[in-house]
Write a structure and sequence with these properties.
- The strands form 4 sheets. The chain has a 7-stranded antiparallel β-sheet with strand order 15-12-14-13-17-18-16. The protein has a 5-stranded antiparallel β-sheet with strand order 5-6-10-8-9.
- Strand 8 and strand 9 form a beta hairpin.
- The two termini are about 20 Å apart.
- The longest helix is centred in the C-terminal third of the chain and has 14 residues.
- It has 3 domains: about 120 residues, Uridine Diphospho-n-acetylenolpyruvylglucosamine Reductase, domain 2; about 110 residues, Uridine Diphospho-n-acetylenolpyruvylglucosamine Reductase, domain 3 (2-Layer Sandwich), CATH 3.30.465.10; about 180 residues, Vanillyl-alcohol Oxidase, Chain A, domain 3, CATH 3.40.462.20.
- It is an alpha+beta fold and about 550 residues long.
- It has 19 helices and 18 strands.
- The chain binds flavin-adenine dinucleotide and 2-acetamido-2-deoxy-beta-D-glucopyranose (8 copies).
- One 2-acetamido-2-deoxy-beta-D-glucopyranose binds next to loops.
- One of its GO terms (molecular function) is oxidoreductase activity.
Length: about 550
């Protein structure tokens, strides 16, 4: 921190807190009336009444649940939204902001509904959900190799539409095909091409944003501070992202993938140890993720760990096998383990579909079915976990059972982009990122088992603290975890925000606060982990 700015920051912790400026008491009827009236300001052919669901509408519950990915968040919610506006036109988003603000409701913004803590559909203060499910157009312009993509489009739809136009263009974004572009990009967005092209936000050129006054802004009119902030700072603190303009990236007509599994008996510990040393140094075309799961056999003491090596190579089998042989010889990767396919087919491979599945599933699977309960935490590693640390991890996993741990290699393009280029600060120096997920279903106790699973996930996280990043222990915003510091839904504590802010954004938190103060000084857009405005603004 520099000069007077630092002083103000420190003062703010000691003295000030910020508060909501909503004055009117929450009134549903007035809100709904406002929507209809406000809407008449915006002329278009899509009536807003077709977009409004209240608990009186028979399909309210199914619309509410449709894009709630985590049953833990859904079932632990204490308050339902008073209304869901499933915007059919951009003006419906504008009207929702103007009317919610006027009538004292918080707005929760939902694109794909994958928030790990359900912050896009749960709040403990009276709220409405603005659901962007229907705003999902994708316009690709091959002459400039760019595209405008609306927030409600899924990653799968985007990949499909790109592949329709070209076999040699792609886009670096998430592995899961049902993520909403709105939330996914605004928190970073990474996938199997991260080491080659960085994150989604590293390839974003422009955006459309509805601000707290209901205006639609673009990159030029929102200004560079705000445009910087929404690329990794979480859109939800700054406004409603209606669409993103992206730069497509070149890919070869065929890529190569593999998936091989090794248990402890097959040398998984040595392989994992070695992977940590080399995965971040491999050529940028190669990405090898590890997925670690306990295997519990029928007999007593019959337990092991299975490590799955999943590879993605922007090239052909021969080159891949040679690279793996030179760097991870003990994996013993064979040409017969490798599958060559188009990039869009590799998306299906990563999403777990059998070889030969039609790419139509990318359009058909807009929401995830088979929903479960889960809790996820994230960690960054700047040093190799010693073998003793791996043993600790294995032992815990074998006792937790319903868990998986994913290790994603960094390096490559990720290490070339400076920490302050975007709010996402986890760049050079990181060997890999880890995701710990406990997952369970109704058969394992459903919502009643929540505390037990949360406890397991915390135990694991604590056990890894000697090896993980420190001061701060960094965390990935897109892997939302309220344990790293959070406030209530009104978010009234700047000191708390500085705690999670440092973990998600490191020194970039300051500039995010500045951007927030520019675009939303009254803190209309907020949640349990949002960016607060500069506390002193009201005293100016
Ligand atoms: C099964 C699964 C797989 C995943 N795989 C990956 C992966 O491969 N790579 C990766 O990077 N991440 C991955 N994630 C994490 C994912 O990127 C985040 O959960 C992301 O926030 C999801 O965006 P969404 O729009 O689907 O979710 P939502 O729940 O709709 O939104 C997430 C957050 O963004 C806000 N938001 C949503 N839309 C907007 C908008 N239009 N304007 C402003 N704010 C908005 C919400 O209010 C909320 O705070 C995965 C998550 C799940 C559940
Ligand atoms: C949140 O803020 C609103 C508006 O100021 C207020 O009415 C409400 O009591 C607050 N709720 C909580 C839980 O702090
Ligand atoms: C829309 O019209 C209403 C009623 O005339 C007015 O109060 C409101 O300020 C207008 N909103 C905008 C964004 O122009
Ligand atoms: C919900 O019900 C209200 C009142 O009956 C109606 O005006 C509105 O059109 C309904 N919404 C939808 C999306 O059908
Ligand atoms: C729901 O219907 C009841 C009975 O018709 C009515 O009193 C109430 O105002 C309606 N609520 C909303 C939010 O439309
Ligand atoms: C994958 O499917 C294609 C046809 O869709 C087929 O040619 C190929 O042999 C299959 N590969 C494997 C390993 O099954
Ligand atoms: C959870 O507990 C409640 C109350 O004891 C019980 O009715 C319900 O069946 C339980 N649910 C599950 C999935 O076990
Ligand atoms: C939010 O901040 C207030 C004020 O410091 C604090 O009392 C409260 O416990 C915090 N809430 C949560 C959920 O952390
Ligand atoms: C995970 C594991 O080691 N499973 C083994 C348990 O024992 C049975 C019977 O001996 C084996 O078939 C499993 O492979």
């Amino acid at each position: 921190m520099k000069g007077p700015y630092a002083l103000l920051f420190i003062t703010s912790i000691l003295l000030l807190s910020f508060s909501s400026v909503t004055s009117a008491s929450a009134d549903v009827d007035a809100f709904l009336q406002c929507l209809r009236k406000q809407y008449s300001n915006y002329s278009n052919s899509k009536p807003i009444t077709d977009a409004i669901y209240t608990p009186n509408n028979s399909s309210f519950q199914s619309i509410y649940e449709l894009r709630t990915n985590n049953l833990r968040s859904l079932y632990s919610a204490t308050l339902k939204p008073v209304a869901i506006v499933t915007a059919l036109h951009e003006s419906h988003a504008q009207a929702t902001v103007v009317c919610a603000k006027r009538h004292g409701f918080q707005v929760r913004i939902r694109s794909g509904g994958h928030d790990f803590e359900g912050l896009s559909f749960v709040s403990n203060v009276p709220f409405v959900i603005l659901d962007l499910f229907n705003l999902r157009s994708i316009h690709i312009d091959m002459s400039s190799e760019t595209a405008w993509v609306q927030a409600g489009a899924t990653t799968g739809e985007l990949y499909y539409r790109i592949s329709e136009k070209s076999r040699v263009h792609g886009f670096p974004a998430g592995v899961c095909i049902t993520l909403g572009i709105g939330g996914h990009f605004s928190g970073g967005g990474y996938g199997a091409m991260m080491r080659k092209y960085g994150l989604s936000i590293d390839n974003v050129l422009d955006a459309q944003l509805v601000d707290a006054n209901g205006r639609i802004l673009n990159r030029k009119s929102m200004g560079e501070d705000v445009f910087w902030a929404i690329r990794g700072g979480g859109g939800t603190s700054f406004g409603i992202i209606l669409s993103w303009k992206i730069k497509l990236v070149p890919i070869p007509p065929k890529v190569t993938v593999f998936k091989v599994q090794r248990t402890l008996e097959q040398g998984a510990t040595d392989l994992t140890y070695r992977w940590q040393q080399v995965a971040h140094k491999l050529p940028q075309d190669l990405f090898i993720r590890l997925e670690v799961r306990p295997l519990i056999g029928p007999g007593k003491g019959n337990k092991t760990i299975q490590v799955t090596f999943i590879g993605h190579f922007l090239g052909q089998t021969d080159g891949l096998v040679q690279l793996v042989k030179a760097n991870l010889p003990a994996l013993d990767l064979q040409p017969s383990d490798c599958l060559e396919m188009s990039w869009v087919e590799s998306i299906l491979f990563w999403a777990g579909f059998p070889n030969g599945t039609s790419t139509d599933v990318l359009l058909k699977n807009r929401v995830q079915t088979n929903k479960v309960f889960y809790k996820t935490k994230s960690d960054y590693f700047k040093q190799v976990i010693p073998k003793a640390g791996l043993e600790t991890l294995w032992n815990l996993l074998m006792n937790i059972k319903h868990i998986f741990v994913q290790l994603n290699p960094y390096g490559g393009r990720m290490a070339e982009i400076s920490e302050d280029q975007t709010p996402f600060p986890h760049r050079a120096g990181n060997l890999f990122k880890v995701q710990y997920t406990v997952v369970w279903s109704d058969a394992e106790g459903g919502i009643n088992a929540t505390e037990r699973y949360l406890e397991w996930s915390r135990t694991l996280y604590n056990a890894m603290s000697p090896y993980a990043s420190k001061f701060p222990r960094e965390a990935f915003l897109n892997y939302r975890d309220l344990d790293v510091g959070s406030n209530d839904s009104n978010n009234t504590d700047f000191a708390v925000a500085m705690v999670y802010g440092a973990k998600f954004f490191k020194a970039n938190f300051q500039r995010l606060v500045r951007a927030k103060t520019i675009i939303d000084s009254h803190n209309f857009f907020k949640n349990e982990q949002s960016i607060p405005p500069f506390p002193s603004h009201k005293f100016k």
